[in-house]
Specification:
single chain; alpha+beta; Sulfite Oxidase, Chain A, domain 2; 3 domains; five-stranded antiparallel β-sheet; 11 helices; 19 strands; globular; binds the ligand Nc1nc2c(c(=O)[nH]1)N[C@H]1C(S)=C(S)[C@@H](COP(=O)(O)O)O[C@H]1N2; binds molybdenum atom
């Protein structure tokens, strides 16, 4: 056997050992705790450690596919590391094993530093690592034997492929281990991963859940709020189409019957409330447009839904915040945090909800099942905590949160924005009467005016559809006589306080993008 094919086989052995490690860990995680799976824990650690600019870049480039990109990158890194470990163990034993143990220890560290982790969470990774070391050692031994026999056989010409020859026997010995380990780890690992991600049980609980009727029903959507224009954003976003942004590689799977929320910190009385108790309270239904601070001008990281929940201010009333408190630090099951101004949550004019329902169903798992926060007028990163389990009343001076630790502004009021939905960027259209249409929002303040400009002509005032409320986006349109040629369409909105969007582009960091959405079209 030549050196090159030896190296290739050794690299493959490394990859198989890694597969065994991961598969064993998945199986053990299945028994112990789904989130103790090392691959996801390392992924989550990477999410927490990458610098803010890189994270913003990834969200910018890949939007809601950011997690797939991360996992693919991680997979590639694992593949390369594994191949190197295989070759090392073959050429320079025991450095392959040393490498595998090192990587395993780093993964173990990643697992046990997760927010919900306990020390037993280390077990899957350590077990996997031991299995990987055994397979690595055995397979490398057999590869040596095969290589030796093959080289010897090559010296006695003709004997290479003779059945029963030493070369054939040792080759079979190697392949049995390699193929066996590879096949077993793929089958077992994939099955265990699927079951770990398995939200089956909780999905069943969710599907069986019957949400109570609201005590305060959302007023019916006004006639004329939804314009009949092809391509305009739906006034109410379907749950399936609703944007999703979070740091959770694996959606936290929470049994609603086990869920409780604690109100702690600077309060006269700490409170604990179960899901059942929450559902028994008089629930309020309200439309709120949610918005991500990472949304670029013209971006899609916003959606409007009908939420069902209990006003957070009423719970706070029970806990009685102490004077001097000015913030609520909310924490999710998986350790994500947000800081929300206390006065916003206590505002009697604003329905900040502990939400359990979204568009008539229980919250979808990826949107925070069983309970999340929804606060009109603030970006999601300072208010919309999904899978929420604790509200700590405190002070801004004492607390910081997930994104504010990473350079984003402590306060995050939504900025007045507008978006052209149709025609879409780069569209080719026929000359004649064309609708230019879209949505505009200034949550909790309201939209007063939307204007459109074509090719630097004077601004024209668009027709506004009826609003649902000041907490939701509002549709608008103008009719445009499109003439042949290339055109630039621009939009700007004015909120109910008379502030008009400024032209100057401002980046999303630290407190949200600014600028006019601009669309180029070609009229044929
Ligand atoms: N637990 C948790 N809640 C979270 C986040 C998160 O990463 N983890 N992201 C926040 C951000 S940045 C936004 S914009 C909204 C998005 O909510 P959605 O995914 O339901 O649209 O959730 C917020 N709540
Ligand atoms: Mo966000």
């Amino acid at each position: 056997m030549d050196r090159r094919s030896e190296t290739r086989w050794a690299a493959l052995v490394g990859v198989i050992s890694a597969a065994v490690t991961l598969a064993l860990a998945e199986v053990a995680a299945l028994v112990l705790a789904p989130a103790s799976s090392p691959l996801l824990a390392v992924g989550s650690l990477v999410i927490d450690l990458v610098p803010a600019w890189l994270k913003n870049l990834v969200i910018d480039l890949f939007g809601t596919a950011d997690k797939i990109v991360l996992l693919a990158t991680l997979g590639l890194v694992v593949l390369v590391l594994a191949a190197v470990i295989g070759v090392l163990e073959y050429r320079r034993p025991p450095f392959g094993i040393v490498g595998l143990v090192l990587v395993g220890l780093i993964a173990t560290l990643a697992v046990i530093t997760r927010a919900e982790a306990t020390t037993v969470w280390a077990v899957p990774t350590v077990l996997g690592m031991i299995g990987g070391v055994v397979v690595l050692r055995v397979a490398v031994d057999r590869l040596h034997r095969w290589s030796l026999a093959a080289t010897r056989a090559a010296e006695i010409r003709g004997a290479v492929s003779a059945p029963g020859s030493a070369a054939a026997v040792s080759r079979r010995g190697f392949l049995t281990v390699a193929v066996g380990a590879a096949a077993a780890s793929v089958v077992v690992g994939v099955a265990a991963r699927a079951m770990n991600a398995g939200t089956t049980a909780v999905n069943a609980v969710r599907a069986a859940l019957k949400l109570p009727a609201p005590a305060v029903v959302a007023p019916p959507i006004p006639v004329g709020a939804q314009l009949d224009i092809d391509g305009i954003s739906a006034l109410v976003t379907d749950n399936a189409d609703f944007y999703r942004i979070d740091t959770a590689l694996q959606v936290p799977v929470i049994d609603a019957n086990q869920w409780k929320l604690r109100i702690t910190g600077m309060v006269e009385e700490e409170i604990e409330i179960s899901f059942e108790e929450l559902l028994a309270l008089p629930l309020v239904e309200t439309y709120v447009t949610l918005m991500c601070v990472s949304n670029e001008v013209g971006g899609q990281l916003t959606g409007n839904a009908k939420w069902l929940g209990y006003p957070i201010r009423s719970l706070l009333e029970r806990a009685r915040p102490l004077s001097g408190a000015d913030v609520v630090l909310s924490t999710s099951q998986d350790g994500w945090t947000a800081t929300t101004p206390l006065e916003v949550l206590q505002d009697t004019e604003r329905n900040s909800l502990l939400a359990v329902g979204m568009n008539g169903e229980a919250l979808p798992l990826e949107h925070g099942f069983p309970v999340r926060m929804v606060v009109p007028g603030l970006y999601g990163y300072v208010s919309a905590t999904k899978w929420v389990v604790e509200l700590k009343v405190s002070t801004f001076a004492q607390e910081s949160a997930y994104w504010t630790d990473r350079g984003w502004s402590a306060k995050g009021p939504v900025k007045t924005s507008s978006r052209i939905d149709v025609p879409s960027f780069g569209a080719s259209i026929e000359p004649g009467t064309v609708a230019i249409a879209g949505v505009a929002w200034a949550q909790h303040v309201g939209i007063e005016r939307v204007e459109v400009r074509v090719d630097n002509d004077p601004w024209q005032e668009a027709t506004l559809a009826e609003p649902i409320s000041t907490d939701t986006w509002r549709q608008w349109f103008i009719e445009w006589e499109a003439t042949s040629g290339d055109h630039v369409l621009e939009v700007r909105a004015t909120n109910a306080e008379g502030d008009t969007q400024k032209e100057e582009r401002v980046d999303v960091i630290p407190d949200g993008a600014e600028g006019w959405h601009t669309v180029q079209v070609r009229v044929a």
